[in-house]
Amino acid sequence: MAHPSQLGLQDAASPLMEELLHFHDHAMMIILLISVFVLYIITAMATAKFTDKLILDSQEVEIIWTVLPAVILILIALPSLRLLYLMDEINHPHLTIKAMGHQWYWSYEYTDYEDLAFDSYMIPTQDLTPGQFRLLEVDHRMVVPVDSTVRTLVSAEDVLHSWALPSLGIKTDAVPGRLNQTTFIASRPGVYYGQCSEICGANHSFMPIVVEAVPLEHFENWATYMLEDA
Fold first, then answer.
1. 109-130 b/e with 16+ CB inside 10 Å = b?
2. Which of 59, 88, 117 is the C-terminal boundary of a domain?
3. Residue 118 lies in domain
4. What are 55-110's pLDDT values in tens digits?
5. Among candidates 141, 145, 130, 128, which has minimal Cα distance to 214?
6. Is the residue at 1 inside a domain?
7. Which of 93, 95, 150, 226 is deepest in the core (most CB within 10 A)?
8. Residue 190 in contact with residue 213, Cβ under 8 Å?
9. Per its Swiss-Prot or TrEMBL entry, what cofactor is needed (predicted)?
C-alpha cells in the first residue's frame, strides 16, 4: 500500500510490476541525463562570449540533433513494447475471477468454483478494528493463491470503473457491457490494496480493492469454508 509522503512507486509484489519498476528506472535515467545535458548547454550559451555570430547553419550539428533523439526514442520504445506484450500475455491461468464494478462496491465471482461469489464493501470508519486501514479495508477480500497465474475478468454493472492494484501492476478499465481481462502472479503472501481509478460518481473514493495472497493450501481451505458457508 502507499505510505504518507511516499515519492516513489509501491514495492513490486508481482513479476510484471518488477518489470514496470525497471522500465521506470531506465526511463528516469535517460530523462536525468537529457536534463543535465540541456542545463549544461543553457549555462554554456548564457555565459559564453560569441565570436561567430554570423554562422547560419551547421550540417554536423543538425545531423547530431536529429539522430541522437531518434536513438533515445528507440532505447525507450523497445523495452516499452516488450512490456506491453508481457502485460497482454495470458497463458493457461490457474484461476479465473470475475470482478464486477458497481456504484459503489465490487463483486467477485470465482468461475472455477460453483456458487463461490460475494460482494466486497468498504468497512465504515466507525467499524474498523485496530490495525485496519481507513478507506482501504473491505468486509470480504479477494483471496488468491501465491505463485499462481490468476486471470481477472473485469466489467461494470452501471458506469465506468477501473480495477487497479499498484503493487501488482494492474489497472484495467471496467466498462459496462464489455469484458476486459488481465492477469497477475502474486510473488509473496500479503495483503495488497487498490482503489477504483475511474471517477464513477459521488462515492468513487469509497470502493477499495483488497487482494489477499495466501499459500495454496490456505486458499483451498478458504474456498471450502466459503462454499460451505454459502
1. ebeebeebbbebbbbeeeeeee
2. 88
3. 95-229
4. 667 788 889 889 999 999 999 999 999 998 888 878 889 999 999 999 999 999 99
5. 145
6. no
7. 150
8. yes
9. Cu cation
pLDDT reading at 182 higher than 80: yes
Does residue 124 form part of some domain? Answer: yes
Model-wide pTM > 0.85: no
Q: What is the pLDDT of residues 17-27, one digit of tens each?
A: 999 999 999 99
Q: Kindly state the cell numbers that stand for 81.
A: 513494447
Residues 35 and 104 in one domain: no
CA separation for the pair 64, 174 (Å, rounded): 45
Q: Distance (Å, rounded) from C-alpha 118 to C-alpha 123?
A: 15
C-alpha cell at 181: 481481462
Burial group, residue 149, by CB count within 10 angstroms (0-12, 13-18, 19+)? middle
Could you tell me if 103 and 203 lie in one domain? yes
Q: Same domain for 125 and 198?
A: yes
Neighbours of 175 (CB within 10 A): 17
Is 4 contained in some domain?
no
Please report how many Cα atoms fall inside a 13 Å half-sphere around the Cα of residue 122, on the Cβ side.
22
State the CATH number of the domain containing residue 173: 2.60.40.420
CATH number at residue 44: 1.10.287.90
